[in-house]
Structures are given as structure tokens and as C-alpha cells.
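User: Fold this one for me? It's Cohesin loading factor.
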Amino acid sequence: MTTPNGGRWYNSGPGPSYNGSNNSNGYGSNPYPPSTPIAPGRPQQSASTPTRPQLPPPSINRYSNFEITIPVNRWPASHSNSNTPNTPSTPSNSMDPHLTLISMAEGYFEAAHASGYKAALAKGGEDAKAYYKLIATGLRALEAALQCRLQPRLEAMVRLRYAGILHEETENGDEAEDALNKGIMLAQRGNFTDIKYTMQHLLARIMLRTTPKASLKMLNSCIADSETLDMVHWTYSFRFLRCNILMEDSPLHDEQGAITTLQKISSTAATRHDHGIYLLASLMETMISVSSGADGIEAANRALARANSLQLESIQGMEQLGILRQMLDIMCSLMAGRYSESEVKVKVLHGMLDHSSKAQIWTPSGEFEILINPLRLGRPEEKLKFKWLTKEDIFVLGYFISGLCKFQKNVEEVGRGEKYLQEGLRSIERLLKEDHAGTTSLVGAMNKSTWRQTLKCHVMLYHTFLLCVRTDWDGAIKGFNNLQQAFLVLPPQRSLLPTLITYLQAVISQGTNQLDQALELYKLVYTTVQSPDSELSIISKLNSIIILRPRDSRAAEHLMTTVEKPCMSTKNYLMKAAYMAVKATERGELVKTKNYLSLALQLATQTTNQQLTFILLSFMCHRFFSGVVSEQAEKSARAALQNATRGRDSLWSLMGGEMFADCLARKGNEYEAMRQRDLNEEPRNAVVANLTRHTPPDQHASGGVGFHEVT
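Assistant: Here's what I get for Cohesin loading factor.
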């Protein structure tokens, strides 16, 4: 794969956790703390409205960003020939009245969905009113058709279509349930097993809104029935739905139960050699484990190992799952702080994306199919259709992940991480403005737009973090203001994104010498996150400790005791390195300080954290060689200066330069000392301007900036 400007890997297109809506088209967001990138979407059942001859799966039950289709039934051949244009058509007079009504209804639905994106942009204007008028007219046509005497199978299918539209487009859940219950009894009498299971699949999702326990109980019964009838494709579908329900933000939320359900799917798929289903279930299990943060990395790696056990030949035609597998592998490395490992893996991802961009594997809706082996030789294969992200969305996610992999080496590689994120940002902005082709429901269009806007916010967030790392505070403040504006566009949702934005604001406040505000914001972060041992909570407390030490040593010591246990047990080496660094810089025994510094420097080097490395080198020089005249003291000061300069950090470049100049002066090399002090003026001016940006001009300090003032 080429770099962003190389001309090939250019189109755009996570991450992300479930947003709580039952009408989503499968786009959600799943943000994580700064060391944990947004993850790619998880598989779930397709909710796109099929063409008229095909009975559409009713509305969606999402599992984050993937949609998993239920097996598809078709309209009877007697009326599968009609053409459904983009506007309602007038059927031939020779058609039966009920077929005329059904055809009219489908015409109205397709006309509405053709304007779905336009209505979503209108946000309640005339276009949205026209959209809902078309949907209501189509529903009335189906209601009229149900008043006719229909063949049992056709009536069941019309009831299914009617309930599906009600569920996806309206809030009339009771009416949809009533239509489905009548249809299920009709299908039961006529022995229309596929239609019955399709209705029960939809009914379970509708009931989830009002009676979640009853929904799960009915679903368990459907799983048992499908196993008894040996209809494995329906067993897979119902179990995937059960996993979705258990991952919903509801009283039924049970991650371990969802993992157990996926493991049952994997077991059945392994026995039947359904490689695509086995891979999908393993990847979904990986996603659930990854959502637990660094503590879930071991479980995620075990599930990922099962997914990696499949040979590439086994997943031909399912390249999307191969791309998801590679993305999750990168996620696990990033969340553990193994950036060198992630860089190797991201190169593989680039090759996969470049290859897939040329292959004919993408559909405009992001759909693909997984084949299920027949029960007996000679029987046709069953198919489950899945709907993931589009090609453009995948490429944006690829840019985002690539930027995260270059996070620690961004400065060393002349801003390559920033370039990836900037290209991803340009691509997603283009999608938000221009990608309005295709047909979709209004809810689907709105959720797709929301997902992309959420990803845009995450890209902007991490780009601003990169600016903070290289102390471009003017750029960081501008980026933060733009991020706030982008976030205001999003509808209210339960996610970690607002807390991440607060954390970024705290970092900028601390970096620009607004320490009181920074303390308040850090406290807001670690008191509002759900888990006090989460990475975001821990890193906020560590930053607070640094500010509090010269102000309130008792408060700083208390915070240190609250983070000690989770930091020592975390699987994230970056978090452990930060803890060791803060622990090393507290006052204590010299031997313990040396041990902590040694461990912190070792972890910083292991995780390629250049910023933490030059901070530790500067502290070591100040702690152990202040006032000392020796070759080792000069080497220590020079190493601190050189590393900070390579990191383009004006503050620590100034500190290293000052210590190096003092060291030269103590050795009697006044000329070199004066020369170094002259070189220090540029970073000094930048540091003073930054630290006094919120101070009135008449209160600016006239003295220099020393190490104690900085720490």
C-alpha cells in the first residue's frame, strides 16, 4: 500500500460501540481511551430493503457495525416479474386487486427510500415530510391488501413486510407485534417454516424494546426448535441475534453470555466445516473481549488465534472478514502498547486494502455472503448475507488505524501519523458531503451519517493529540475548537467520546499553563468514567498527581495509592511506563528512584515512546548529575537534549539545552556554553510565549524558565 499521497490507497470510509437505537443501519461507534483506538464494526444482520421480488428481511438488529441477514424468502413467482421504478407505478389492469395493492406499496416504499439521504439531510423539512407521506401511503396499501382474500403463504409474507416497515420506519411496535402474531399462526398452520422463523426473528427484536426477558425466552425456544428440525442456517441466525440482544445496552446485558453463545456457534461451525461462520463468530468474540480494554487482550488474542487458524483459501470470497481480522490483530497490539509489532501488521493491512480496491468484492451497500454447507450431499447451499461497512468507510478506517500505528513515531517520521489522519479526515468529509447515492431508509441514512460524523470526531481527536505531543499548542487549540464544532453536530448518544474530548481539553490546559482548569477537568474525567480502574481514569489521575505534588502532596499521595494496583496489573505497557515514570519522579530513596527510572526507561524504549524517553533522560540528568563535573554528566545532558530536539518538544529541548550549557560551563568550556545558550533562545521564547499566553502582559515573568518551574 502506498502512503496517503501515493495515489492508490485514496478512497475513504471506527469504529465503534453500539449507540442504542433499534433502527440503526448498523453504524455505531466504539471509542476507547487514548491508548485504545476505535475498533472496526462487528458483524450483524442485514437490514437493507431488497428489491421487490425478494421478501425483505424486516428491520435490523445490530451488533455494532455489522449486519447479519436472516435467510431470505421470496415473493411467489406469480408477481415476481413486475418492475418497481423509483416512483410509484400503476400496475396493469389485468392484475388482481391485491397484487395491484402490493405492487403499489412496494413502489411507494422504493420511492421513499430513493430519497432517504435527501430526507436525512433535511432534518425535518419538506423532504422528510414527503418521505413519511410515501411510507404511510405504502403502509395503507398493504393494509388494504390484507383486507382481500389472499393465499395463506402470500398473506403471511404481506404481514411480514408490513410489520418490518412498521418496525423500521415507525414507533408502532404494538401494531407490528399484532401483525406478526397473526402471521406466525398462519405460517404455523400452512407449515411455512422459513416464513415463520423470519417472523419470529423480527418479533424478538420488536419485543426487545418493551419486554426484553420475554424476547430472550422466545429466542431460546426458536433456537431449540431449529436445532430439532436440523435447520442449521436458522440456528446460526437465531444465535447471532441472541448475541446481539445480550450486548444491547439493556437489563439483559451479559458479555459472558454473548461470548458463550458465539462459542456455541463456533463449535457447530467447526463440526460442519462452515469456515465463514466460524471466522465471523471468532472475530465477534474478539471484539467483545477488546471492548474490555487492555484487560481483555488475552481473551481477545485467544479468539483471534482461532480465527487465524483458518487458511486464506478457506475464506475466499469473504475478503471483508480477512480485513476485519487484520484490523483486530492490529487493535490488540495497539492496546497492549506494542507499537513496533503493530507497524508490521499495518503494512499487511495496506496490502490487503490495495488488493481489495482492485477486486470485485465490494457492493455499494457493503453486503457480502457466507455460504453454509448443505446438510446432505446434493442439497443446495444455504447463504447468510452480511452487511458491513462500504469500501469507502473501510478505507477511512484504514487511514485512522494507520495514523494510530504511527502515533509514537510521528515526529521521527516527519509527521507521517498526522498525514494518515489528515487524509482520512479529507476522505470522510468528502463522503459526508457527496455520498448520497443509492436507496436507503431515512433511519438508515441518518445512522450512516451519524457513524461517519462520529468517526470524523475520533480522527480529529487523535490528530489533536499528535499536535500536543510535539507541543504545537496553537494547532492543538485550533484543532480542539474544530472538534467541538464537529461534536455538536452529533445527536445525543451514550459513548466515551465526550469524556475523551474533556480529557483532551485537560491536556491542552496543562500544556498551556492553566493548571487549575486542568485539575478540574482531569477530576471530571476520572469521576465520570464508569470504571475507576479504566485507562482513561488512570492516566487522568497520573497527570493530576504531577500538578498536585508541589501544591498538595497529601492529595497527590492519595491519588497515587488509587492507581498503584491497576497500573501494576495492566497489560498495557504504555500505561505501566507512565506509572513508573511518575513513581520515579517522587521524592524517595535513591535506590528505589533508580529502579523505577530503569524500569520506566526500559518500558518507554520497548513501546517506542519517544516523548517519555526524553522526559526521563532529562530527569535523570537533573537528579543524578546536577552540579557534577564528569564525562558521564555531559553525555547525560547531551542525550536529553538530542532526544528532546528530535521529538520537536520546545519545553524539554529548552530544559536539555540549559542542563547541557551548565555542564559545559562547569567544565570551563565557556565558549561552547554561550553558544548553547544562544541556541536555547528560540525554544525559550516559544516556551515563555506558551506558558504566558493566558497571563496579562504586565504580569509576565521577566526571569528565565528553570527545571523546577517546569516540573
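One thing worth pointing out: DSSP finds 28 helices and three strands in the chain.
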